[in-house]
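Interim report, section 4.2 (structural modelling).
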Amino acid sequence: MHRFSYVRPESPEAAVEAFVAAGADARYIAGGTTLYDLMKLDIEKPAHLIDVTAISGMDAVETGGEVLRFGALAPMSAVASDPVVLSDYPVLAEALDKAASQQLRNMATVGGNLFQRTRCLYFRNGTGNAAGGYPCNKREPGSGCAAVDGLDRGQAVFGQSKSCTAVSPGDWPVALVAMDASAEVIGPKGKRTLRVTDLYRLPGTTPHMEFTLAPGEMVTAILVPRTKAGRASTYHKIRDRESYAFALASAAVALDLRGDSVRGAHIALGGVATRPWRSPAAETALVGKRLTREGALAAGRAAFADARPGRHNAFKLELGARTVADAIMIAAERRRA
Amino acid sequence: MTVPAFPDRARVDAHEKVIGKAPYAADVMIPGMLFAMMVPATIAKGRIAGLSTEAAMRVPGMTRIFTADDFSPPPPPAPGGPPPPPPLIISEIAYRGQPVALVVAETLEAAIEGAEAIRPTYEEASSFSSRIDSAGAKQEPVKPVSAGDADAAMARAAARHKAEYISPAQHHNPMEMLSTTAVWTDGQLTIYEGTQGANGIKGNVARALGLDPAKIVVKSPQVGGGFGQKGAGQRQTAIVAKAAMVLGKPVKLVLPRAQIFHNATFRPLSRHRVEIGADAEGKMIAVRYDADHQQSRVGRFPPSYHSGLAQMYGIANYHGTAADIRIDTQSPGYMRSPHPHPGCFAFESAVDELAAKLGEDPVAFRLKHDSKVDAFTGHPLSSCYLNECIIEGARRFGWDRRSAAPSSMTLPDGTQVGLGLGCGVYPANQHPAIATLKVMADGRTQFAVAGHEMGQGIRSTIEQVLVRNLDIDPAKLEILIGDTSAAPQHTTAGSWGTASATPVAMEASAKLNAAMTQLLAGRDVSGNLHRQLASVKRPMLQVEVSRVPPGQTTKDLETLRSGGHTTIGPNYPTFTTFSYIAHFVEVHVEPRTRRVRVPRVVSIADCGRVISPRTAASQVLGGVVWGIGAALREQTEVDPRYGGWLNADLADYIVPVNADIGDIDVGFIDRPDPSMNALGVKGLGEVAMSGASAAVANAIFHATGRRLRAMPFRIEQLL
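Predicted structure of the assembly:
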């Protein structure tokens, strides 16, 4: 529990201005489903909250044109129930639907969800009012990583470093990375557009720095290029229970098929990497070949060929490969339907 | 003469629960009340070296910070008396998360901020043991139990099966948090706390703080899930009471869930090495069973894993050993179906494995063992309808559709289907009771007795009996339980609630009706009891009744009156009796990613006479859900380098969600056990869960041919 200031500007420009005026320790807040949770855990300690939910028009969902455009403030539930998203991009709808409970999806925004922080147990067990206080370089830079030699069943097998093995928790960012999405950003230096995949850093030696946005920058919209691969797509998520859990392994898959042969493939992995993880190896293994279940499994195995398991998470390599394979077959089935 | 079956009735508090009006202990709001937060230790073992309260005291709204300096040790327990109460705040740290300070402030926010500002320094112990295989873990055997000659019978067995089964550490996680609100006025201490043992709290607080128990009242109006977690004395209760007494103001503490994980009791990890031998006819004749479990350095939760298993199948030769393994953790304790859940998981898995080895059908194999006699005492089992449970369950479940060979049933998409049976047992216990029944001319009725409403529906069972036996207005019936000022209270646990509260309600009804007959003295007065009282111009009629179960005496009534603990069962002077259940489970295992689904369960219980069909069915539903959760989901994780519990919240301690649960069909044999009490009630809450996890394991074996012996069964075990 720390004191913080709170403002609610009504335009993106005013929000940026408020952020610049607030200086260090400011945070934008939209749905609040992650930030408030982490504030209660004494992990996020913002001195200034800039609530962007009063900005009008930033929640538009536009799916009529050559590019799908989702305003950053659109609730996850609104995008997931858009008729065009449902019929032409099941990978996007499913990634949103499987991300959280209906109540959370009604509150959380598609822009804010890009910046959800890891569910690593050691990260979330801060000192707060829990009995934790485990070392975590993400939470307290320089304190060490308890997960590297600890209980790492849920940890990453791609992209991890000696400083951090925490999994990037999101489902939606994985689907967006698979679909070559980009993000419109406004900040103190004006507007720019960058690929969603370029929002994320690898942990390296600075795992507390997770995103590439400069201080004061804010995502205002997400753009997904129209592709007919969207119809033959799925977000397949395997977890420890049927619902309301983060992925042990997930796969976002969209296929461009002609007859039984694969002309193009979009494949990204979730639950297994320190950032949303596009898998060119899996895509290459599929493209130009006839689609078979054996070929799908070969693509899944190709996706995990250079994975690096820890102590308790080697099962993710086999599970992940099979998840990719099943996702490929589900996506292909969609096209036929 | 046995009482007839009871009709289905809505639970008495259903409406007020649905609209959010049912009062829970932490709902109490008192003018001038202060709010508290505990500060948890962040080491696993050692002592507090320094604790500065300066920064915390600067938080606006801060009232007072209590540390080890504010508490003196309680007097040592009297020989033969009740066990010592939980320690207060002390400098010695025995487990990670132990409270090192209590922060009291005018607002909850200030209390939280103050608690976060306290960062004690510690002298850490040079080593500690956080797991049963850590250096420094100490194995302490308890007395073995024996019937017949297990070694000799095992030696002549024609077939044997032996394996080890593991049940992990688990935490209860009821929705209602642990809380204490203490009010000190005019030398009287009132404690509001969601508890299964208002009497126990009273005794613990009196002993911990050196108070006269007569000055303490404990109120537990509704408990938002007890499951054994709220049966034992809690660490925080006397600490909060002391704060209220020092400050002269009411103090409320609600523990955050992570602190509950670290301070409440939990189900300890247990290991079960089971060997069963069968004779040439394929009947089980011998069991050797070694069990041990995780224990704290000072804990008392016994490793009593041998109750009821031999009696399920009339096995004449049984030898069971058990041991505590003491490590540096908080004390484990009773969690729903405390011993029979892990015990029946192990034993019923082993029975299934032996049946498979003999090539026998799991249903037919069990039905050969109609059990009549308790081999340990030689006494008859006064009622045992386990076979009736199995037969009715098999019929409803469609067991005859099962093809015997493992991995022989698949769906068109390659999903493997498995059908499994697991049975459960739980002792039929009861305790003495003292009840007051008051019927008033104005239409009201009050009934006060020992009991705690923790969601299981004890008020609904009492209402069933009163409404059947008394001509009263049910809408104005008030059932006073969980309140030490209303009637002597006894801990409600061990499935003894209904068997203890409802027979005395029946006796009280009879006594009141007799008193009314006497009062009317032959006059023909029409109307219900309230109208009759009004007609004869009597404001009320009151009776008091006490009841002692078979095998207990007036001495046990005295123990009850003084707030003590006294139960009897399953061994009574001339008979033995248990409740039984048979769970039939269908699992579907995905062909490639190997997720296990449980689309269908049929559970049939023998709990004696069913008093409240509605709440009884709910009890079994909840028990089965938990059995599925225990088999497939739940485990509290320890990083041995740090101690404590790593996944200490509901996001990471995985319990089933609605989407995990399919159809659960519940049925009852509903035949009274008249030896137990006049109503023929045994008990239900605990047996509901016993054996359910074994049914899941047995179904997974049937689906896949893979025998899983360590819960929880996670995806990596089946890949």
